[in-house]
């Protein structure tokens, strides 16, 4: 097995500021960037802060940016880089810093709470739900999401525009709305709120979110664009528009 | 006096995995104010790692299934050491708990007629595991996380505040349980990982749902959180642990590359048709069917292969024996020189079904091997070997309410003990979380409502807990070398892996206890650098104390049990011993070190199985496990003497 000394540049600091620090550290065959961060903790910087849990790409905790690209540290293999390449590890840029590689991701939990929850069909008792595989499959794709928030980090609507965070829930939670809208038995209608409260209109489908998704979910093509179509159908289809008018008058 | 933030809740749940979230949902639905505390971010708990499914005898795929069949399978899997009442409740209630998840929004894979699909798994007679591909745990966590959001939305509508009744406190570590002068739970003390500041939760009831202890072993499928916190905190608060000698080594973990060694390869691979082979290409599991399972498994490859499509007329493949049997078989194959290049065996699904079907059924396994090992599982076999996966042992609880021997302290899920006996069947963990998470939530709610006054926290206890928490920053001048927590953790993991691992002997366990004693002395000298804000070195120094205590409990109980059963294999006592079947080993904290106490172990008899449950089994099967004297009440035995 071949080992070598890797060149690392890791951001260290807190909400008051910080800087990139250089490290030379051992790298072994088959390792991922998170292994190297752990080796730094064990041998050089015991208080280097990083979030991680499963180290198998399933929990979405170790999100950061490697050479400027949003990635899971546990799924970024060292073999991706040249041995003499300097590897720069920085915290996710769209969120404020807690310490070192750890950021404040509370924005995501706030947005999650604003999406109207699954609304069960009134008449069915537990055990009576019947759904076809092909019908649940669309929402199942979105439920693969491990909430690493890399899509939120990379989305240019908020990446350098803190001011948009209030009106925009980000790809992760617009996809959550799409997931519920495509659920075969959900009884609510979230089309208006997707546009008015969660900022679906801010998305101009550049697909950056899809590109960084470690679960390879087609966020833009399968969730955001169909969601835009549903909203457009409701608002701008003349027949639907007339129906809405009549329905409201009837009330 | 210690500066400490105070929070006040009716019920405090420690741990936000499946059991903790299900308990919290129940307590909140009973109208109580409920706090959920977790070391990580909300939604990252180890439950997300569960792959194969959730066992429940819904009978959607094979209508012969029933709770009685599930109960029997569970008892067999645990080699009849299980708490039979827990196994009964679990088998009876699991279907309702799964169906309930659909009303929370879960989307399980479906059968042709639109019901929840169920898959085969080791030790389960019929296809029984509700699943979503191979990411069932993620579905459970996300579903319950979203149910909590849903309850919070109801509270927002009613009280104007999302967190009026139910709040999640993330990245918070509890370091001490506090009791009032009557010995009942009065609170939980801990610190915010982010700031390092202290927090006190004043409460009448604490539900432990902290999961397992796998991080005490070097090769494990468990995440960093699995440091046995619940086990250790409960023991230090005076509760007893049972079955700590039983540790499950999952037969199939990744073995290469080294940095991913131990990561789980789901049993679903074998459930869906994958087979184990040695370096000679032989399907070796046919040589490892133990006497107690003789006649229940296929004896030829042809029969085993027919079973997948015609289970009524063929017996199942021995690749799907309970996990302890398969793990030992792999261990033997490797030891005898028939292993793969990196010290495992082969798990072959590539030659068993088309590539597209593999990707559809096992998407995250495909992804995991492709990304981490450059292996395409649709074209070549995987290399796999045993990995520490689950601890059967845990806090001794009342089966119906989840209450421990300490008033006000409840436990559910992996950190509780008894349900799985000496070995857990795959799929029985997710159902365990749901059934006993709910029951612990109910148990705690009933307990709190019955209290005449809320227990009071003593200031002196807060001060003591605070001192213990920051002591790694303040090394004592007199004693030995300053110790690095990372180094000690590594030595502890190595010790447990090598000397109290999958195959054990008295000699090795005694050596382990010697090394543990030495590590314990050094744990006192751990010094951490830096300050209290998000400092992983300090976090580890505190977790290490818990790892230390649970490791001792495992090793001491393992030394005492002079037989082999389920997740405890003694090379010097290789047989199942009927005289040990109803014996529990009960671990308690002892000695005068409050932070890393000694562990004492004593024997205790189990309550005999209720007659109607005993009669669910054939006498001939029970005779393989029980002593003759224990079976005189079985109708077939009485027939003999009449």
Estimated structural class of chain A: alpha+beta
The average pLDDT score of chain A comes to: 94
Low-confidence stretches of chain B: none
Radius of gyration of chain B: 24 Å
**CA-atom Rg of chain A in angstroms:** 22 Å
Question: Mean pLDDT of chain B, rounded to whole units?
Answer: 95
DSSP E strands of chain A, number? 7
Give structural notes:
The complex is a heterodimer of chains A (251) and B (642). Chain A is an alpha+beta fold and 251 residues long. Chain A is built from ten helices and seven strands. In chain A, helix 6 crosses helix 9. Chain A is elongated, with a radius of gyration of 22 Å. With 642 residues, chain B is an alpha/beta fold. Chain B is built from 18 helices and 21 strands. In chain B, strand 20 and strand 21 form a beta hairpin. In chain B, helix 9 packs across helix 10. Chain B is globular, with a radius of gyration of 24 Å. Chain B starts with a strand and ends with a helix. The mean pLDDT of chain B is 95. Chains A and B meet through helix 1, helix 2 and helix 3 of A and helix 3, helix 4, helix 10, helix 13 and helix 15 of B.
Task: Summarize this structure as a short list of keywords or feature phrases.
heterodimer, A: 251 residues, alpha+beta, 5-stranded mixed beta sheet, 7 strands, 37% helix, elongated, B: 642 residues, alpha/beta, 5-stranded parallel beta sheet, 35% helix, globular
Chain-wise SSE layout:
The complex is a heterodimer of chains A (251) and B (642).
Chain A: E1 4-14, E2 17-27, H1 33-43, E3 63-66, E4 69-72, E5 86-90, E6 97-99, E7 102-103, H2 106-114, H3 133-143, H4 150-154, H5 156-159, H6 170-181, H7 191-196, H8 208-212, H9 219-236, H10 238-250
Parallel strand pairs in A: 1-5
Antiparallel strand pairs in A: 1-2, 3-4, 3-5, 6-7
Chain B: E1 5-8, E2 11-14, H1 18-29, E3 34-37, E4 54-55, H2 67-77, H3 84-104, E5 118-119, E6 129-130, H4 136-159, E7 166-169, E8 172-179, E9 185-192, E10 198-202, E11 205-208, H5 229-236, E12 241-242, E13 247-254, H6 268-271, E14 275-277, H7 301-307, H8 323-335, E15 345-348, H9 355-361, H10 363-373, E16 382-391, E17 394-396, E18 409-411, E19 416-417, H11 428-450, H12 459-470, H13 485-499, H14 506-523, H15 536-560, E20 583-590, E21 598-605, H16 611-614, H17 619-622, H18 635-641
């Amino acid at each position: 097995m071949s080992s070598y000394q890797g060149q690392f540049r890791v951001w260290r600091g807190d909400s008051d500021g910080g800087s990139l620090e250089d490290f030379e550290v051992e790298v072994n065959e088959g390792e991922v960037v998170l292994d190297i961060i752990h080796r730094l903790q064990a041998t050089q910087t015991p208080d280097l802060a990083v979030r991680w849990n499963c180290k198998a790409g399933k929990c979405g905790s170790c999100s950061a940016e490697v050479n400027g690209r949003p990635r899971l540290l546990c799924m970024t293999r060292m073999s991706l880089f040249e041995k003499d390449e300097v590897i720069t590890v920085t915290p996710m840029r769209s969120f404020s810093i807690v310490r070192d590689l750890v950021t404040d991701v509370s924005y995501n939990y706030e947005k999650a709470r604003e999406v109207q929850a699954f609304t069960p069909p009134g008449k069915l008792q537990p055990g009576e739900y019947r759904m076809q595989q092909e019908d649940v499959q669309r929402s199942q794709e979105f439920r693969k999401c491990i909430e690493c928030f890399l899509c939120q980090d990379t989305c240019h609507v908020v990446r350098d525009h803190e001011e948009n965070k209030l009106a925009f829930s980000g790809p992760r939670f617009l996809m959550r709305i799409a997931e519920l809208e495509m659920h075969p038995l959900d009884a609510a209608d979230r089309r208006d709120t997707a546009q008015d409260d969660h900022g679906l209109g801010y998305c101009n489908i550049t697909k950056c979110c899809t590109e960084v998704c470690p679960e390879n979910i087609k966020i833009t093509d399968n969730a955001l664009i169909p969601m835009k179509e549903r909203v457009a159908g409701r608002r701008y289809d003349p027949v639907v528009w007339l129906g809405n008018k009549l329905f409201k008058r009837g009330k | 006096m210690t500066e400490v933030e105070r929070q006040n809740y009716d019920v405090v749940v420690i741990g936000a995995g499946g059991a903790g979230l299900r308990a919290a949902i129940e307590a909140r639905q009973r109208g109580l104010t409920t706090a959920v505390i977790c070391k990580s971010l909300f939604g990252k708990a180890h439950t997300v790692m569960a792959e194969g499914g959730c066992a429940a005898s819904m009978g959607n795929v094979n209508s012969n299934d029933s709770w009685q069949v599930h109960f029997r399978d569970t008892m067999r899997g645990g080699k009849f050491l299980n708490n039979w009442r827990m196994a009964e409740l679990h088998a009876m209630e699991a279907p309702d708990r799964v169906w309930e998840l659909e009303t929370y929004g879960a989307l399980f894979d479906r059968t042709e007629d639109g019901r929840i699909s169920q898959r085969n798994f080791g030790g389960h007679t019929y296809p029984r595991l509700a699943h979503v591909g191979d990411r069932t745990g993620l579905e459970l966590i996300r579903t319950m996380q979203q149910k909590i959001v849903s309850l919070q939305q109801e509270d927002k509508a009613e009280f104007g505040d999302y967190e009026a009744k139910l709040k999640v406190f993330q990245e918070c570590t509890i370091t001490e349980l506090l009791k009032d002068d009557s010995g009942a739970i009065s609170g939980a003390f801990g610190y915010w990982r982010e700031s390092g500041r202290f927090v006190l939760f004043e409460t009448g009831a604490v539900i432990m749902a902290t999961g397992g202890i796998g991080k005490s072993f070097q090769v494990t499928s468990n995440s960093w959180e699995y440091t046995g916190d619940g086990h250790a905190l409960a023991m230090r608060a005076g509760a007893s642990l049972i079955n700590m000698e039983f540790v499950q080594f999952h037969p199939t973990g990744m073995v290469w590359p080294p940095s991913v060694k131990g990561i789980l390869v789901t049993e679903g691979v074998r459930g869906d048709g994958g087979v184990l082979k040695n370096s000679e290409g032989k399907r070796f599991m046919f040589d490892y069917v133990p006497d107690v399972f003789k006649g229940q498994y296929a004896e030829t490859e042809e029969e085993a292969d027919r079973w997948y499509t015609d289970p009524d007329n063929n017996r199942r493949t021995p690749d799907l024996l309970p996990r302890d049997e398969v793990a030992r078989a792999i261990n033997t194959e490797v030891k005898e020189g028939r292993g793969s290049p990196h010290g495992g065996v082969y798990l072959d699904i590539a030659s068993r079904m088309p590539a597209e079907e593999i990707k559809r059924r096992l998407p995250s396994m495909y992804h995991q091997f492709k990304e981490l090992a450059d292996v395409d599982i649709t074209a070549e076999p995987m290399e796999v070997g045993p990995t520490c996966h689950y601890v059967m042992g845990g806090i001794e609880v009342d089966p119906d309410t989840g209450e421990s021997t300490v008033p006000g302290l409840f436990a559910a899920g992996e950190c509780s003990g008894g349900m799985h006996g000496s070995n857990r069947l795959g799929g029985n963990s997710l159902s365990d979380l749901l059934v006993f998470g709910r029951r612990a939530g109910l148990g705690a709610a009933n307990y709190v409502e019955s209290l005449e006054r809320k227990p009071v926290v003593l200031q002196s206890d807060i001060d003591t807990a605070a001192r213990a928490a920051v002591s790694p920053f303040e090394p004592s001048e007199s004693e030995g070398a300053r110790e690095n927590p990372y180094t000690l953790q590594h030595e502890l993991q190595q010790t447990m892996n090598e000397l109290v691992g999958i195959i054990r002997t008295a000699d090795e366990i005694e050596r382990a206890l010697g090394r543990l004693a030495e590590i314990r002395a050094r744990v006192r000298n751990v010094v951490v650098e830096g300050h209290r804000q998000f400092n992983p070195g300090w976090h580890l120094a505190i977790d290490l104390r818990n790892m230390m205590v649970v490791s001792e409990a495992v090793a001491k109980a393992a030394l005492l049990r002079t037989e082999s059963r389920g997740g405890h294999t003694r090379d010097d006592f290789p047989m199942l011993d009927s005289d040990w079947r109803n014996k529990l080993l009960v671990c308690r904290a002892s000695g005068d070190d409050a932070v890393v106490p000694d562990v004492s172990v004593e024997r205790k008899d189990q309550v005999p199985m209720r007659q109607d449950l005993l009669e669910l089994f054939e006498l001939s099967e029970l005779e393989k496990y029980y002593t003759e004297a224990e079976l005189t009440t079985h109708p077939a035995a009485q027939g003999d003497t009449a």
